[in-house]
Amino acid sequence: MFSENNKKSGCIEVVCGSMFSGKTEELIRRLRRAQFANQKIAIFKPKVDTRYSEEEVVSHDFHSITSKPVSDAAEMLSIAEDIQVVGVDEAQFFGANLVDVAQTLANRGVRVIIAGLDTDFLGKPFGPMPALMAVAEDVQKVHAICVKCGNLANHSHRLSKSEDLVVLGEKDIYEPLCRECYNAAMAEEKK
């Protein structure tokens, strides 16, 4: 992006939603478009996310793009000066400092594209996602389809009994549910 005075204008874009809603797929799509436009990109994911690959961001449909796993969002600040686009997957697993990192990169003129769960398995705002959405120029909420009724799903219902906030898993541990089906499932679990 260039303004009238030809200075680079950075921005923050957030893609959020429940599990199985296409967040990572959308992140990869936007990054591939940037690559096609010959823009220099850097992609990051949390080191804790090793479900499909330790080195790649991988969608549930197995589309992938090479990434750098990092333990702390601050590591993203060491990107090369010529990087124009930064992608971040599974943003909910980073600490609150991801917000400052994204702001710093955008202020340097970098387009920052962030994908992550907006709520946890209890339906509560997840990690830095609410603050990222507040400072972003663009927020896109994507939806899965409820596996119980077919309506739009916005909840990641955990099938396991673990109370840990972070439990990596796929369809064996999570299912996308709409509000009504999620509330019914949570009420049933409390019995």
Order of helices and strands: EHEEEEEHEHEEEEEH
Tally of alpha and pi helices: 4
Low-confidence stretches: none
How many whole angstroms does the radius of gyration measure? Answer: 17 Å
Q: Which shape, going by the Cα principal axes?
A: elongated
Distance N to C terminus: 54 Å
Tell me the β content: 25-35%
Round the mean pLDDT to the nearest integer and report it. 88
Structural class: alpha/beta
Which sequence of strands runs across the widest sheet?
5-2-6-7-1-8
Kindly state the number of beta strands.
12
Main β sheet profile: 6 strands, parallel
Helix content class: 10-25%
Can you put this structure into words, describing what you see?
It contains four helices and twelve strands. Helices cover 23% and strands 26% of the residues. 38% of the residues are buried. The model has no long low-confidence stretch (mean pLDDT 88). The strands form four sheets. Strands 5-2-6-7-1-8 form a six-stranded parallel beta sheet, with helices on both faces. It is an alpha/beta fold.
Question: How do the strands and helices of this protein lay out in sequence?
Answer:
Layout (H helix, E strand, L loop, with lengths): L10 E7 L5 H14 L4 E6 L9 E3 L5 E3 L1 E3 L14 E4 L8 H11 L3 E7 L11 H7 L2 E5 L1 E2 L6 E2 L1 E4 L15 E4 L1 H12 L1
Parallel strand pairs: 1-7, 1-8, 2-5, 2-6, 6-7
Antiparallel strand pairs: 3-4, 9-10, 11-12
